[in-house]
Amino acid sequence: MCALRSASPGRVDGLAKVKGTAIYGDDITLPGMLFGVCRYADIPAGKIEHLDLSDALAVDGVVKIATWQDIPGTPVVGVIVQDYLPIVKDEVVFHGDVIAVIAATHL
């Protein structure tokens, strides 16, 4: 069976994108909204002996810094084997492992 090809329906947002007036998800703010940022490991492997969050918590606008201790239960995930920590506990095994998640009122 053959399907007839019809004309493109067009893009309803095309003109706004070309003019630079399109609104994207990053453009939307809500009252009381927080921004989230992950702090990634910048080493390929190693032990975390201590996290001193005092300087980071003192930054204006920082509301919370979550670490593995803030995840209830057994915080492991995985597609085949449930063995990966979404936030590392005391051992970095990959460059880019998440060490902490920061919530703040502004970036």
TrEMBL record:
SMART domains with a match to the protein in the record: Ald_Xan_dh_C
EC identifiers of the protein: 1.17.1.5
InterPro entries on file: Ald_Oxase/Xan_DH_a/b (IPR000674), Ald_Oxase/Xan_DH_a/b_sf (IPR036856), Ald_Oxase/xanthine_DH-like (IPR016208)
Source domain of life: Bacteria
A Pfam short name: Ald_Xan_dh_C
Keywords: Molybdenum, Oxidoreductase
Domain Aldehyde oxidase/xanthine dehydrogenase a/b hammerhead: residue ranges: 19-105
GO molecular function: iron ion binding; nicotinate dehydrogenase activity
Family, per entry: Belongs to the xanthine dehydrogenase family.
Name of the featured protein: Nicotinate dehydrogenase large molybdopterin subunit
Organism whose genome encodes this protein: Raoultella planticola
Lineage start: Bacteria, Pseudomonadati, Pseudomonadota, Gammaproteobacteria, Enterobacterales
Gene: ndhL
